[in-house]
Write a structure and sequence with these properties.
alpha+beta; four-stranded antiparallel beta sheet; two-stranded antiparallel sheet; 6 helices; elongated
Amino acid sequence: MKLIFLIFLGVLVSIASCTPQFRPPRPPRPDELASSHQSKGGNKRPPPPPGAGQGNAILESAAGAGSGISFRESAAGVGSGYLVPAKSNTRWIWDDNCKNDRPPFELGRWIQVRKDECPIAFNDPDFDFHQDFCEPSPINDNYKYWYGSKLEAMWTYPEYQYCESVPVCLACPALGRCGPR
């Protein structure tokens, strides 16, 4: 009995006097990096879409003088230099988890969409009415828990606005064309 007590006491003393060994923290996975193209919700601003930003003169000359096509300045801000046709039939969106078909072939790609393919890009490109989905918050965390892969991150162009959790089936079915489903 004394022997068991002494062994138990020895183990307790050795545990109490030992300094714990700490492992170095594991490196983050690519999807945990905020600036990663592989990040879900990593809101690093993507490059402009193909052929964008070539100047307003090109847009205006393509429309032709007296064509009746009107232009508005983008919501990217006064003096941003981007004009968008007021009644454009297509818009550019950035799909965060779609494999790019241009070098360097990473995740994330611009997709040109029509209103029926991505209504949110036309009706609310600044995500003013979708803040509960777009801004980090407890409500957004609940949406992610409830809907999981049915939510995807996207950017709009030329507004360059980001939404972390767009509901694919209702707001932008075009996001469901590629990536994890």
